[in-house]
Amino acid sequence: MASAYADYAAGGSSQSEQRPNLLLTDEMQGGQAITSDDVVVRMPIYATTNAGEAQSQQYASFVIMSLFDKVDKSAADGMTQEEFANSVRGAATPTIGVWENRVVYVGFGDVPSGNGTSTLNVKNLFDGNGEAVVEYILDQTGVSPAQKAIVMKYFSTAGPNGGDITSFLVEMRADASEDGRYENTATLTYGDSSSSQGSGSAYFTEISGGVEVRDGKAILTKVDAGDAGITLSGAVFKLEKMQPDNSWETVAGSERLTTNASGQITVAGLLLGQYRFVEIEPPAGYVMEAEPIGFAITSSMPDHTATMTAENTKSPVLGKVVLTKVDADDETVKLPGAVFKLEERAADGTWTDLPGYEALTTDGGGLITVEDLVVGTYRFVEVSAPEGYELETTPIEFTLAEDTPGLEVAVTAPNTKSPVLGGAVLKKVDAEDPTAVLSGATFKLEQLLADGAWGTVPGHGALVTGADGLIEVRDLLVGSYRFVETAAPEGYVLDDTPVEFSVAVGQPAQAELTMKNTPVPPDPEEPVVPNEPEEPGTPQQPGTPPAGGTKPVSLAGTGDGASTALAVSTAALALAAAVGGASMLALRRRRR
After folding, report:
1. Exposed, middle or buried, 420 (CB in 10 Å: 0-12/13-18/19+)?
2. What domains are there in the chain, each with its CATH number?
3. Is the overall model pTM greater than 0.90, yes or no?
4. Whose C-alpha in 90, 169, 430, 536 is 20 to 30 A from the C-alpha of 528?
């Protein structure tokens, strides 16, 4: 400022160096409390020498609070301290902000703006008559014409600064600590990162006009979080005050403060400063509130009284469920080793796993017990069945309500025994050589039905022996079965005699069966039909024997005697051949 006065005094017209986004930060120390109403910003008019040097004497100062907005915030408003500071610094209007009754931020904007349009401009004082007021003040104080000219030029709206205010007095009406000492460090930040700091300490010989104020009062009302019209008695708090080193210390006599029938605690005789209520016992049936409730007693507060409301959420109604896993055919048989997950139904009707309850296993007595469940609708979902039993895929749903007797639900979860499954291997071999396996034989598999009839097992109507001569069937339920051959292997006679077997508890898991087929016999040879015998010729009439009765002599194979004998022999031979052929034919027919 001195350099600006000197420049004006020398007839210069340079604009004051601009400080963009000018922010003053001052944190209260030692448990001091403050609000935005406790901060006052003034515009000073300093005396100068005829050479333009600024003097410590003030001709006057104007309160310019009408040019500032005020805002008080805390973490309870859903923002961080840094976010709050940036909001004050970047506000469109000069702003005084106080964070949690202890940190003061004053945002001035760009100083000077450089175009005379800033909110912080002398023309905005006294309805546009700021220069006239300054001139009047100077006339009243009897400054020399040279001094007046310098000051008026400095504040002129026609000057290089456009009448922007470039000097400020910030008054913070904080309450002194109990030992009368107050320390602080103020920071002035501008631009992106530039800053300057000033620190110091002061001793206050008077507190609020020389009288120690102990008329601060705090009134806390405890209510139901779901219905503020319900006040809660029986909550116990302690009251703490922030100390000069920013630690917290319990206020003497406020170690156990209990809400009355109206849900209230009233504490009087408090010094100015920052305090907090800390809940140490919740009302009966409610959850403990861990977050302290902070407040401040400041000199600017009406009647030095702070009022606040503290909420508590009802303790959830807790119940339990007991699941018993039993045999579906005999509920006296309890089943250990079943694994379940527990799901909870949401408000939209969807189901979600309850954390920590994804793998609940039935104990030796077949039981699962789950406690501390809030009222609501749940279901057990089986994820692994007991050994020897089928998995039950239907969830078991139940509801815990506030009116549930004893707040306990019992459910039963039956399981059906896994069916006994068996199978069979059929081997097809040659009847004359059992080592020769037969492929290509076709069978159907039939099961004995309840009515005594046989029915083909679905999917088993055309079973064919492979290259190893085998047919294998599996996963057959308990019952009686049979293989029925429907097509023989090539070159073999069909054997349609059924081969039966059964699947039962205690039997081998797989029946082994063997079926034989006889080769088809070769076709018989056609018999040789003998030729028909020739008719014998007519024998010659014998001649008259010679006289004397002597018989004629014939040589064998000659003459008529020989012809006759040959004919007889041929006829006999043909008859023998015919008889022999007939006998052979009869024998072959018998073999067929």
Report:
1. middle
2. 2-203 (no CATH), 216-312 (2.60.40.10), 318-415 (2.60.40.10), 422-517 (2.60.40.10)
3. no
4. 536
